[in-house]
Amino acid sequence: MEAVPPPPAADMQTAEHRLQQESDAQERSLAEAQERLLQIEERVVEPGEEVSFILGGNDVPRAVKYEIKVTDGHRMEVRTVNGGPHPLG
């Protein structure tokens, strides 16, 4: 079996550059997603009150599921009916 010669240095630099660009794009996407999360309004729902939620998104890169979590006034998680995770699509 013959040894495979190492790739040319220029190809390695191109691959490293491409990986860095992809990493930078993922970081920007994460920062944008975190900013969108800050735009969600919190609302107090009174006991016995029923509410509905409408979720929408324009650009949801690589997201495949979402989940709804509900907390009480003391930030304790409240069980929900069919809170997810729900597949997108």
Q: State the order of secondary-structure elements, H for helix, E for strand.
A: HEEEE
Number of domains: 1
Task: Note the gap between the termini.
Answer: 48 Å
Radius of gyration: 22 Å
| Uncertain stretches | none
Average predicted confidence as pLDDT: 76
Which percent range fits the helix content?
25-40%
Strand order of the largest sheet: 1-4
SS field, number of helical segments: 1
Structural class: alpha+beta
Secondary-structure map:
Layout: H1 9-38, E1 65-66, E2 70-71, E3 77-78, E4 86-87
Antiparallel strand pairs: 1-4, 2-3
Notes on the structure:
- The chain is an alpha+beta fold.
- It has one domain.
- It is 34% helix and 9% strand.
- It has one helix and four strands.
In short:
The chain is α+β, with helices and mostly antiparallel strands and 89 residues long. It contains one helix and four strands, in the order H-E-E-E-E.
Key terms:
two-stranded antiparallel ribbon, two-stranded antiparallel sheet, 1 helix, alpha+beta, 89 residues
